[in-house]
Design a protein that fits this description.
The chain is an all-beta fold and about 500 residues long. The protein has three helices and 40 strands. Strands 12, 14, 15, 17, 22, 23, 24 and 26 form an eight-stranded antiparallel sheet that branches. Strands 27, 28, 29, 31, 36, 37, 38 and 40 form an eight-stranded antiparallel sheet that branches.
Length: about 500
């Protein structure tokens, strides 16, 4: 038996196969075990499956399931028990077979397995109390071969089409072209992922989309953008059930061939919200599939479709107004095409630069003589805000790095610029200097925080500058810029932006 530390939220998985000597062998999966007289179990015999409760030594069947296929075979099959209080879900090879609601035996819990007549093999046993959907892939360090190899916990599944790694103009991505069935499909993730945000970037040639709550290659939801050379184009939310597609919701929307778009879906208790470039354009409710993995999909028979920058995170992080935006510029800030879907405003000063070893692509701002180079984040924020800027190299002495806060207050926009020069730090309000301090710091990386009308600038975890003002902003936008008489390439390792709240306008 295995102990479960979080009895309200866990998954127990075991792979089972039978031997060649016993025809009607029996396998049991045991969970919510308190003692030998109180537990629940799943009995599996051939095509039949029964969930029972044993209470005070007496067995009571709760629910049964008859499959069209043999459940115990001479090859390993995966059985998963997912417990999210008070719901228990049973999955077979990552596809839901049945579920029930139960509120008993909550004081403590163990899980286990066994058999009445033997001749069974158990393998790859896993139990976890961390069911959060959390995943990120930028295709910077991974190619298709390593995607197929996967890891112990996550492995890409290539179901249809021709998929390859693409490296063009510093943009590392994955490309696809439809197969014999007329589409391309690849999936990744856990069968128990539930209530999540899933975002990706795609360069559309014909049709491209993202799959979510994937049960298998024949059952999933699909949000797709469709290019039509004879019309504006459209967005579709579809359900693929037993390999048959039904359109749940459709909206006419202009899609330009060959352009990058940001696709996103948010799921929460059967409610589905679909986004294009951060605009919420489709909302629908459906409970056919209630959890599952993610996937990429395209219907492009002539030209390749590109996908990049996959992010999966719990939708509760948005519902609770806690947001973490992270832009790793080795991966995401890339020329104009890359900027079309990222969180930063386009700038003519963006450049791509390969490092000496020829391995990594660095992206940043190209500053010209006497001119200021600037880029602003598209997000409108409020509450606590934190920005970390990490440069590839220390800034030249004749170039100052600036953090900009544009604050909406009483119908006016006020600009605060925090200037970080090589020998001083200053703050300017609408270009008028309010406070400055002579100090030299390591300008390769620094942090600025804003909370309760106060800004703090930190270097190497020490506060080096502080400024307060009695302002009451309704909303804030932030950005970074570089000023001074000098010119040069300012390359980023990364820029992290944290905020209490994101205002969707």
């Amino acid at each position: 038996m295995l102990d479960i530390t979080n009895i309200n939220n866990y998954i127990f998985t075991v792979n089972i196969k039978k031997g060649n000597y016993t025809k009607n062998t029996n396998a049991s999966i045991i969970f919510n075990y308190t003692d030998e007289k109180n537990y629940k179990k799943i009995d599996i015999v051939n095509k039949n499956l029964v969930i029972s409760q044993v209470k005070n030594g007496k067995e009571l069947p709760l629910r049964s399931f008859n499959s069209t296929n043999v459940l115990l075979d001479t090859i390993y099959n995966k059985f998963s028990v997912i417990f999210r209080f008070p719901k228990i879900t049973l999955k077979y090879n990552e596809k839901t077979l049945m579920w029930l609601t139960d509120t008993t035996f909550l004081k403590e819990s163990k899980v286990g397995f066994g058999s009445k007549n033997g001749d069974l093999y158990f393998d790859n046993i896993e139990n976890s109390t961390d069911l959060k959907p959390l995943f990120q892939e930028t295709f910077f360090y991974i190619d298709v071969y390593r995607m197929k190899e996967g890891t112990k916990t996550l492995k890409w599944k290539f179901h249809e089409g021709d998929w390859n790694w693409n490296r063009n103009k510093g943009i590392m991505s994955i490309e696809a072209i439809a197969g014999k069935k007329g589409f391309a499909l690849v999936t990744v993730g856990k069968e128990y992922w539930k209530d999540y945000w899933f975002t990706t970037a795609t360069r559309i040639k014909e049709e491209a989309g993202i799959c979510f709550y994937v049960q298998d290659d024949k059952n999933y939801y699909l949000f797709k953008a469709v290019f039509d050379e004879h019309a504006n184009g459209k967005l579709q939310l579809a359900k693929i059930e037993n390999n048959k597609e039904s359109i749940l919701c459709e909206k006419n929307y202009r899609i330009n061939k060959g352009e990058w778009y940001k696709l996103a879906v948010k799921t929460s208790s059967g409610e589905i919200s679909a986004f294009l470039d951060d605009k919420n354009l489709i909302n629908y409710t459906d409970n056919t599939f209630q959890d599952g993995a993610i996937g990429l999909w395209c219907n492009s028979t002539k030209d390749t479709t590109l996908f990049d920058d996959i992010h999966v995170k719990p939708s509760s992080s948005i519902l609770n107004n806690t947001v973490h935006f992270e832009s790793n510029y080795e991966f995401e800030m890339r020329e104009k095409a890359g900027l079309d879907f990222c969180d930063w405003e386009n700038s003519v000063n963006i450049f791509t630069q390969r490092n000496i070893n020829g391995i990594n692509q660095y992206v940043g701002i190209e500053k010209k003589l006497f001119e200021e180079a600037r880029m602003m984040n598209k997000r409108i924020l409020s509450g606590y805000i934190k920005i970390l800027v990490d440069h590839k190299d220390i800034l030249p002495k004749d170039i100052a790095g600036n953090i900009i806060f544009e604050i909406w207050e009483n119908g006016k926009i006020i600009s605060y610029k925090f200037i970080i020069a090589h020998d001083k730090i200053a703050v300017a309000k609408d270009n008028k200097i309010l406070k400055e301090r002579n100090i030299r710091i390591n300008r390769k990386a620094y942090v600025i925080e804003y909370k309760n009308h106060t800004w703090l600038i930190k270097s190497e975890e020490k506060i080096i500058f502080e400024y307060s003002e009695n302002s009451y902003p309704q909303k804030i936008k932030v950005g970074i810029s570089y000023s001074g008489i000098g010119s040069g390439h300012i390359a980023f390792n990364n820029v992290n932006l944290y905020a209490d709240r994101y205002i969707n306008e």
